[in-house]
Inverse folding.
């Protein structure tokens, strides 16, 4: 029963974690910029684990998961292993790059709980689907995608 409750809470939390602004709700289109990697919250760890050369965080057209982000969230949640929360709250930030080819590469999850980070990375690696790549001036670019993931023990 506790595991089911933990799974339900995790799935509910994941749905909020992926609640990003959609292209239809943007009020202004900002020009795409090359990321300033030193400004990333986990730069020290990311530079060891991810190739950040030439990535962007904004694009004329952001990458699209086939079937939409709702399907991506569902697939991620289905692949996410349920772990026992030893502490009260686990915060994880998942980073990955959608390459010019549309495939996901350079996956890293940074967390205050190593098991949760590994489970998030593994869940993302199991989604073997080609995305529509991000576009800048109608040319595909490497796009750094990130999202928060939290687990709260009740």
């Amino acid at each position: 029963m506790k595991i089911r409750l933990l799974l339900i809470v995790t799935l509910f939390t994941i749905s909020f974690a992926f609640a990003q602004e959609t292209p239809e709700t943007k009020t202004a289109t900002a020009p795409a910029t090359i990321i300033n990697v030193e400004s990333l919250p986990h730069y020290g760890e990311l530079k060891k684990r991810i190739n950040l050369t030439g990535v962007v965080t904004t694009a004329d057209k952001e990458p699209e998961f086939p079937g939409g982000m709702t399907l991506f969230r569902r697939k991620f949640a289905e692949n996410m292993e349920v772990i026992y929360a030893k502490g009260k709250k686990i915060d994880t930030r998942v980073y990955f790059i959608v390459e010019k080819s549309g495939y996901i590469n350079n996956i890293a999850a940074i967390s205050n709980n190593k098991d949760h980070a590994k489970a998030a990375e593994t869940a993302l690696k199991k989604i073997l689907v080609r995305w529509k790549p991000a576009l800048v001036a109608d040319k595909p670019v490497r796009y750094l995608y990130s999202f928060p993931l939290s687990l709260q023990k009740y």
Summary: The helical segments are 2-17, 43-49, 69-79, 114-125. Residues 2-17 form the longest helix (16 residues).
